[in-house]
């Protein structure tokens, strides 16, 4: 049974009501986008998290930058969980989670940075739980829908980041290219040095640029965190 909470250095994420729980790859992605925000390479004043879940990515981003951060979540229980996690944090005055369908969402002011850990596992075996299917499959938000939402709500010089299954990254990149988004940075992720790639972390911008491409393994041959993953996660994990 998953833990009902996950304690980080500067905040705690409760997850007993949320559909999807805190995972190592989502933490790695949160640290990766947080580093981008902290790097000052991008002007980050307004952030949108599509599919906020527990609020994990919003909180990780808030730790690294002073932006106003909004999240949108379609599952009611997950929305309530994210709202409570945000309310318990040090950054609650500049964080807000919205209950609703992002396909119907259009912001009055565009965002400088949009991030998402979108639905996975298209055409894979589905669970009997409709809300879990909504979160883990693309029944509720297909890649094309996600890209249209980003295109509608992202500022002209903004950027957006997604965490995807490695085997679907190429399809998403091609679809993004049709909307004039190019990969600015790509990091492919392995569970361990002995495994194949299973996730891709992608950062897009509306400009034709040579992508920075690299890779990372979460664990080494002895099942300890690698130096690279430790460097990303050390600001968050209690024991790194």
Overall description:
The chain is α/β, with parallel strands linked by helices. It has helices spanning 24-38, 56-64, 76-87, 130-136, 143-153, 169-178, 227-233; strands at 5-7, 12-14, 46-50, 68-73, 95-99, 111-116, 154-165, 182-192, 197-205, 212-219. Strands 5-4-3-6-7-9-8-10 form an eight-stranded mixed sheet. Strand 4 (68-73), helix 3 (76-87) and strand 5 form a beta-alpha-beta unit. The protein starts with a strand and ends in a 7-residue tail after the last helix. The relative contact order is 0.15.
Essential attributes:
globular; two-stranded antiparallel sheet; alpha/beta; 7 helices; eight-stranded mixed sheet; 240 residues
Quick summary of this structure?
This protein has helices spanning 24-38, 56-64, 76-87, 130-136, 143-153, 169-178, 227-233; strands spanning 5-7, 12-14, 46-50, 68-73, 95-99, 111-116, 154-165, 182-192, 197-205, 212-219. It is an alpha/beta fold and 240 residues long.
H/E order of the elements?
EEHEHEHEEHHEHEEEH
The best one-word shape is: globular
Percent of residues in helices comes to: 25-40%
* Uncertain residue ranges: 121-139
């Amino acid at each position: 049974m998953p833990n009902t909470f996950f304690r980080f250095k500067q905040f705690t994420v409760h997850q007993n009501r949320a559909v999807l729980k805190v995972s190592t790859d989502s933490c790695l992605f949160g640290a990766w986008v947080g580093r981008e925000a902290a790097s000052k390479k991008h002007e980050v004043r307004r952030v949108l998290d599509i599919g906020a879940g527990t609020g994990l990515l919003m909180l990780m981003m808030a730790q690294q930058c002073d932006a106003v951060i909004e999240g949108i979540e379609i599952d009611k229980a997950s929305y309530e969980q994210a709202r409570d996690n945000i309310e318990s944090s040090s950054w609650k005055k500049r964080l807000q989670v919205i209950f609703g369908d992002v396909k119907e969402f259009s912001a009055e002011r565009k965002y400088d940075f949009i991030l998402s850990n979108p639905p996975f596992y298209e055409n894979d075996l589905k669970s009997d739980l409709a809300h879990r299917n909504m979160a883990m499959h693309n029944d509720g938000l297909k890649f094309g829908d996600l890209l249209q939402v980003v295109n509608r709500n992202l500022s002209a010089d903004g950027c957006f980041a997604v965490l995807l299954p490695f085997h679907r990254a190429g399809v998403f990149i091609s679809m993004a290219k049709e909307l004039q988004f190019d990969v600015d940075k790509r990091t492919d992720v392995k569970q361990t040095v002995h495994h194949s790639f299973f996730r891709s972390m992608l950062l897009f911008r509306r400009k034709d640029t040579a992508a920075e491409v690299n890779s990372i393994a979460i664990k080494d041959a002895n099942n300890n965190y690698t130096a690279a993953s430790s460097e990303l996660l050390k600001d968050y994990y209690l024991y790194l």
